[in-house]
Protein 1
Amino acid sequence: MTPPTAWQWLSLAGIIWLQSVNGTNTNFPAYSSQLKQLLSLSQLQLNNLAFASDAGKLFGFFSGIAAFYLPLWLVLLIGSTLGLIGYGVQYLFITNYISSLSYTHIFLLTVVAGNSICWINTVCYVVTIRNFPSDRQVAVGLSTSYQGLSAKIYTVIVDALFVSFPEKKAKAYLLFNHLTISATGIYAVITSLRSMPSGLPPFGNAIGVLVFLLAPLVIPLAVKIREILAAKSWINREAKVYNFTVEENVNVERMGMG
């Protein structure tokens, strides 16, 4: 069995990044209070909105069916579009660009946004299983575990960019939700933030996130370098064998002539 290539490792790094920014439902508390204020919601209605995101995942089987009949890039595009609509329209509502949304509209938009996560997850699972067939359980489990970091990633970015404008943070969360989920085809990576020091300023935390985003690229880069060195070593070995064979033939001819 051949070991994974650099491109396979790079695909896993990209999938980890997709999963780490795909848990957009985890930052609902960041803007829920503003929705509650704009719509004059009761606590029960607000709780139902929190449930709506999970309710959208009940229709996740549609993404699985689509993956059988559609190319994966189209499945990813559908998921990105659903997330763009679900979170984007809510962002326009919070920023007063849309003023006529009802509670039912927000509920349905949250369901759509929650369902978008399933489409992106489906693409991640299919690509991981195809690239790591013998270790698919470990690879899928590794990529899925990073989805829990979404809330921390969004928090660090928003705190760094809006440190002087705390009143705009709720809008910023929705803005990042629909922008990042519409750009999930970009390959990037992230690893654990557990070692992040808590005393750093917001901008320092953002730099730390960027460093951790790039860190797992070491694996595919190292594999690629090893492949290049192995190829060069093989070429040099073939050249030495060829030169040795030529010299041996020349010596034999000289001995025959002598």
Protein 2
Amino acid sequence: MSAENAAARRWVPWLCCYSGARVNEITQLRASDVKLIDGIPCIRITPEAGTVKTSRERTVLLHPHLLEQGFLAFARKKRGNAPLFYSLERQRKVDRKNPTYASVGNKLAEWVRGLGIKDSTVAPNLGWRHRFKMVARTVRMDPEVRDAIQGHAPRTEGEDYGEVPPDVMLSEIRKLPKYEVAAGERRDGRQCDQRKRAEAVATS
């Protein structure tokens, strides 16, 4: 397994979980898209890196749990416009229909299915986006901030003016509960071993 694939397995689900972003918005992230704004770590989702459904860039503050796990340290190992989850050498020069970051997302979905999630009604990648919305409602996250985080269209003309201040967004992001995930293990033990190998490569 390549270091990029291992990193995608290690980080993309967590980033989708705490941002509600579309999977391709995460797999297209570059090192330069991980920033500090007013001293607060965030990711910048921008059409320049790939595709954004609304064609509008947005800032998403990083949940404290992502920082605890070491995402910022991982991202800082890359430089400039280097992609976080795929190799530039593998990027096709001209292929807008099948960009590499989309392939990474598809492979992640296949990987999740391979871990035993067979329910056809559950979309491995899109499921995080729906769950974010559901949990955000449960914790009473401000609807305007929630929509700004996910890149949804403003509900009123007034909401379309300006951006949500970083400190305001961070206070809302912190409302999301910390996910505690125990390593699942199938009878043959392969699931646990695969996860450990992926994490070992991604954090090396």
Protein 3
Amino acid sequence: MASAPEPAGPQGTTTVTLSLPRLIQTLKTQLPADRAAQLDALLELAADPSPEQQSQIKAQMCAIASMDEIRAAVNALMAAPAAPAPAVRARP
């Protein structure tokens, strides 16, 4: 008896793309005020980062916040209502 093919990749995983500045802003609202200055500095770097800077920002973010705190911020972003799509005007 043939078995069903196994799915490619881990079952139940989804890839999501998040804005690094939005993630940092969300962290800032969830973490104690004593970490706000560090997050503000990261927010400035995240405005237009190079790929190398993105890695540095992520590493610094992990030094400022625990994985549970970062996970909570990601979950908050995922639970937030999506921003409305811009209105499309009909051409005359």
Protein 4
Amino acid sequence: MRARRAARERCSADKLALLRRLAQSTLLGGLPETRVEQSWNEQVFAKLLDYRTLLSHSALPFHVLPKNAAGARRFDDFSLGFFGLGEHTVLGTAELKSPGTDLDAPQWTGNYKGTTPVEQALSAARGHGAACRWVLVSNFRELRLYDARSPDAPLATVADLRDVRNPGSSSELGPNDLG
């Protein structure tokens, strides 16, 4: 019992150290989204939140699928669900933006046509079908989780990496909450 508790406490301390390192990183502010996203996904979703990524485990299923098709010529930044066992089940989709990006501001570059990052993520969720309930939108500091099944897609929770102070602070976004 004591050994297991000590191991859990070490794991929690390691996760908090990772969060602090990510929150204090000056690299994030100077790089575009495409240079940051896959490393960030691996650090936050595999190491911190215990999701299985494509290469983080030797067993199936894995939970994070990068650049998943969400309709014709549309790919999300990654999907959360159950993958690698034949048919994929997408339970959530993510839209990542460059560090510091205002997640509520309309974007006019590319094909965004004035949609906000939140609207872009909700559009991707609709492209994944009815099983896709959750939408995660982030600028690598703030993580927002929306319920895509509700008509007005209410904000379910917000986490700011700079504000996480204790081991339980990040548990709301872990793989046990996918369903």
